[in-house]
Amino acid sequence: MAIDGLEKIVAGHDLFAGLGDTFLSTVSGCATNVRFAADEYLFHEGDAAQQIYLIREGHVSLEIAAPGQGRMAFQSAGPQSVVGLSWLVPPYRWTYDARARGDIRAIALDADCLRAKCEADPALGYAVMKRFMPTIVERLHHTRLQMLDVYGTPG
Amino acid sequence: MAHPVEQMDMTDPMVPTLARILRKRVEIPGVVTFELEAPGWQGFAPGQFNMLSLFGVGEIAISVSGYDAEPDRIVHTIRDVGATSHGLSLLEEGDTMGLRGPYGVPWPVADAAGRDVVVVAGGLGLAPVRPILYHLLANRGDYGKVTLLYGARRPEEILFTEELGQWRAQLDMDIEVTVDHASPGWHGHVGVVTTLFRGADFNPDTTTAFVCGPEIMMRFAANALTDAGVAADDIYLSMERNMQCGIGLCGHCQLGPYFVCKDGPVFTWGQMRRVMTVKEL
Q1: Class of the B110-275 domain?
Q2: Which of B26, B171, B189, B219 has the most CB atoms within 10 Å of its CB?
Q3: pLDDT for the residue numbered B142
């Protein structure tokens, strides 16, 4: 796919909506279009976190496997979501599995590429971090609410 | 224990009538739905509640979860959590319970005509909003986009699964269900109910939202709706407090400047936003 086509797709994702043309072009240089079939894994726990996935279509199940209990989904991510935050923090390893619940269309950003560009241009790095922070904070809020178990039996 | 049900004088709001259980259905473990008959009962508007009593044990406020166009069927969905609800949940078809009501300010469903409607429910909160959904489906052409976002604790605790399937099949309402804790074999959404807002399709400028569930969930949902651009006074919540008289006399259900039984249980987020963050209330 032509770069300008990818730029348009990256710009159309909520994460990078409104990002300036120059930064958008730089970020899109790290992007590729990817597809996953149902039940295919985007990544596995323990693997190197080499991609960030911007989901365009379909839903991804984020799971942790436990001995004797099989895989346990703790979150799902749908269109316009971001899957993969471990690329931000050393040692850049996935801490869970991500499995396609159905056919997935996504943009994969190469983590090494994006980190290098952010290191080289702090303004870009700041712009990218500002866009990831709401996702991180939102996940933290949602996790807190999940932990409160608000639907549990009162008393 | 079965008793004859006679038409009773229901003009005194503190005097219960005897309601006979016509049908009982176990929805999920610990949650039952009763279909009652109570001659003389005047019908209800979505969002109103009845006081149900088990004589010698106690009385509790329970929202009506049936269809307001069928006033002869008084439908209540009860979770077994306390002495009274436990005793009531043990009753069987043909048994009777005390009933007085309906009470309270209803959901302003008719006022939402011409607008998009988002219904957000959590856990047993699906029961008090079910009358809204019945009304919307029966009058579908009067409303814009209709969306139900429902969160449950686990897949096994999803209420009204049969009806959710029927409503989905009608294809004129978007229904998204999520669970906080997925079980093996669950293929739906996982996460709190507010995670469903991202995929919901509604115009915030012309949306009326009805929210019911645990208070913390309602706060999160109302904040997510206002973040999405829905006006605070277009977001309605159903509050739950210790209602005793049901008619604003005893003060047990006071919440700030309001008596929940009389001024509510349905309030706007604009009314509730401040009082719901006061720990002492």
Answers
A1: alpha beta
A2: B189
A3: 95
